[in-house]
């Protein structure tokens, strides 16, 4: 969902502290049909040590289900959200939503992020393809997305939770940001489809790679099991 709202001064929210909010209702889509369509081989994966989850094999999905990390975006959930008991989540604002983000979305993001059921921050990141929809310059798009990404990065570091990244046509930029910001938490490229050369470069810079339904088999094979995740990204 892309809007044309003025970009937010995210730094102004840096020191806000909120109590968890867990009693707001949200009608989840939980279709068994979707589950059947997007079922992956039962590859068991354990997150990095700070995020240990036994028998998790779907590291990124938008459907409420067990044995998965369910992604929530505050911009898309303005009607409210409740974290259901027994499920695991990630929370983040998608880079497509950068110009639609309101201060209240950032407040909700921070409130959700501190919940124990939220195991990772994101998906967030950089997507240069947004220029085609927004009619803005590549530099302007990536500048705004970088500011929003830095808000997520701070949450990731403060809460010791991994960062799940959506990166499209901006891999040199995300590598440079990782070098500059020097995160202590894992950075996970979700839905990775790149060629082996790019996979090696990202692995050399310490990234984790998450593979969905479509991926380059050579890139998958060269990624160590300890740095490789599987996902459905099911909607």
Description of the molecule:
With 235 residues, this protein is α/β, with parallel strands linked by helices. Helices cover 30% and strands 17% of the residues. Strands 1-2-3-4-5-6-7-8 form an eight-stranded parallel β-sheet. Strand 6 (187-189), helix 6 and strand 7 form a beta-alpha-beta unit. The two termini are 14 Å apart. The model is unreliable at 1-55 (pLDDT under 50).
Task: Put the structure in a nutshell.
By secondary structure, the protein is of the alpha/beta class.
What amount of the residues lies in strands?
15-25%
Principal-axis shape: globular
Write down the overall mean pLDDT: 80
Number of strands: 8
Low-pLDDT stretches are 1-55
- N-C termini distance: 14 Å
Query: What strand line-up does the widest sheet have?
Result: 1-2-3-4-5-6-7-8
Backbone CA Rg: 17 Å
Largest sheet: 8 strands, parallel
Portion of residues in helices?
Answer: 25-40%
Structural class based on helices, strands and sheet pairing: alpha/beta
The helix tally amounts to 7
Order of helices and strands: HEEEHEHHEHEHEHE
């Amino acid at each position: 969902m892309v809007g044309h709202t003025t970009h937010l001064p995210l730094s102004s929210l840096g020191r806000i502290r909120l109590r968890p909010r867990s009693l707001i209702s949200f009608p989840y889509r939980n279709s068994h049909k979707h589950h059947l369509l997007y079922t992956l081989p039962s590859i068991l994966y354990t997150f990095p040590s700070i995020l240990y989850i036994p028998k998790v094999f779907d590291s990124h999905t938008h459907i409420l289900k067990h044995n998965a990390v369910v992604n929530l975006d505050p911009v898309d959930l303005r009607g409210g959200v409740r974290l259901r008991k027994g499920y695991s989540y990630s929370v983040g604002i998608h880079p497509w939503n950068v110009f639609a983000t309101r201060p209240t979305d950032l407040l909700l993001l921070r409130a959700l992020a501190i919940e124990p059921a939220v195991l990772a921050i994101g998906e967030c990141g950089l997507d240069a393809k947004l220029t085609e929809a927004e009619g803005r310059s590549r530099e302007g798009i990536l500048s705004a997305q970088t500011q929003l990404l830095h808000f997520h990065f701070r949450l990731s570091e403060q809460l010791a939770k991994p960062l799940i990244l959506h990166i499209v046509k901006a891999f040199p930029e995300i590598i440079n940001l990782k070098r500059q910001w020097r995160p202590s938490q894992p950075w996970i490229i979700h839905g990775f489809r790149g060629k082996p050369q790019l996979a090696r470069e990202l692995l050399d810079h310490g990234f984790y790679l998450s593979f969905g339904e479509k991926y380059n088999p050579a890139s998958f094979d060269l990624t160590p099991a300890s740095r490789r995740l599987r996902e459905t990204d099911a909607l």
